[in-house]
Amino acid sequence: MLKNYLRLFLTFARIGGFTFGGGYAMLPLLQREVVEKYGWTTEEELMDYYAVGQCTPGVIAVNVATFIGKKLYGIPGGIIATLGVVAPSVIIITLIAALISNFFENEYVIHALGGIRAVVCALIAQAVIKMTKTGVKDWVGAVIFVATLAVLLVFSISPIIVVACAIALGLIIEAAKGHAAKKGAQK
Amino acid sequence: MLTTLLHLIWEFFKTGLFAIGGGLATVPFIYDIAERYDWLDIAVIPDMIAVGESTPGPIGINIATYAGYNAAGVPGAIIATLALITPSIIVIMIVAKFLQKFAQNRFVTGSFYTLRPAVAALIASAAWQVFTASIINLGTFTAAPAFSSFLGMFDLPKLILALCVFLAGTFWKKIHPIVYIVLGAIVGIIFKM
What we know:
- The complex is a heterodimer of chains A (187) and B (193).
- Chain A has 187 residues and is mainly α.
- Chain A has helices at 2-17, 27-37, 43-55, 60-99, 107-135, 139-154, 159-186.
- Chain A folds into two domains: 2-135, no CATH class; 137-187.
- Chain B has two domains: 2-101, no CATH class; 106-190, no CATH class.
- Chain B has eight helices and no strands.
- Chain B is globular.
- The two termini of chain B are 43 Å apart.
- The interface between A and B is large, with 104 and 94 residues.
């Protein structure tokens, strides 16, 4: 058990330590480590965690880590995965704040970050393609995907509203199906 | 010192509980904290955000750690971070339990059926934002209908690096994303990106 906890902690520490640019930038690493390498969740579940993580309080990366840890080893798992994902931040930020006052004026740091940002673009693009393949299964999904993306690119609306609308739509479709089934049964 | 730590716990717990929608949602809360307490200097917040965005790890966590360190050193950094993540852990545990219980409910499965394409779109739009922020420079765009003006919009070395990684990742799926990130840093330094 202890070995499993340690593996969970180290996996999430590795993910946290190489995530540049917040929760979405974590996606390629999560797909690789959590879905492909260990099979701890499916791609669908990962999408659901992101959806819930968007509209629950707190940092998305933390919410997703808690979800996966909880799924694997219950409450201790949730706590361990979360501590893993934040551990590198705490160490790195403390070191920067304590030791290096002009860290971001350093020429090497600036250029390295420039290169990393370009790579992150490509990695997120690939993660998006994978997610779209998983999330868009039929024409209803395709319509929702295109419409949501169009709205998001034109207006800056909160992800919470997007999630709320999508859930509402799902509930309406389900209710309509139930209604239709009832009518069918009456005939 | 002790009162500062207690304030840190209280303030960052509240931030973790009410900042919905990711790391940058914590920023207004941090400004609010700086206005009310003297242990957090409002002038360092832009620095804090810059550091938070360009160091590894979730941005909200980085900002909380930095603020905590500024307020009360290493204990402050640890305590602010733990206080920020505590509400998340509690809320997610409850949500996870609820979802497990109702996983077979058709309204729950129905919600996720329409939610997944929307989440894919959310992530796609986030990818577009990352792309425009790091590779396209709309400021240099001129109305002149010339190809050079179109090309001038892009940070060409970064665009080429991104395309190479995209192609490489498509053909060699086995290479770990971390390898590309480390290579990106090296290439960035060599070509002064």
